[in-house]
Design brief:
Blueprint lengths: L1 H25 L3 H30 L5 H27 L14
Helix pairs in contact: 1-2, 2-3
């Protein structure tokens, strides 16, 4: 039963990581590109970490706090990183349709 749960979580998480990565490459501008990795990839990595915690608790001596700490760290730092990238884009005065960075002065 544990293997089935871990397998489902791994497939689910991998699919969301793939979708987030494809969105980062394919979406047209920087603001749309921020949405894919921060939303889909965060959900995907969260599912992968839950799969790791389930597998570790089933095979190992018990619950491991490492997966929980990594999950908390990732869920805190991913939105902060996206916020900083969006503030940089606003500072460079990028519009929603701009695909390229403006030339430097």
């Amino acid at each position: 039963m544990v293997e089935v749960i871990v397998s489902i979580l791994l497939v689910f998480g991998s699919a969301f990581v793939l979708l987030g990565s494809l969105g980062l490459v394919k979406l047209p501008d920087i603001y749309a590109r921020l949405h894919a990795p921060t939303k889909a990839t965060t959900l995907g990595v969260g599912a992968l970490l839950v799969a790791s915690a389930v597998q570790h608790s089933a095979v190992g001596p018990g619950f491991s706090a490492q997966e929980l700490l990594v999950t908390v760290f990732f869920f805190i730092t991913a939105p902060i990183g996206a916020f900083l990238v969006s503030k940089s884009a606003l500072h460079l005065r990028l519009k929603a349709g701009d695909a390229k960075l403006p030339p430097h002065d």
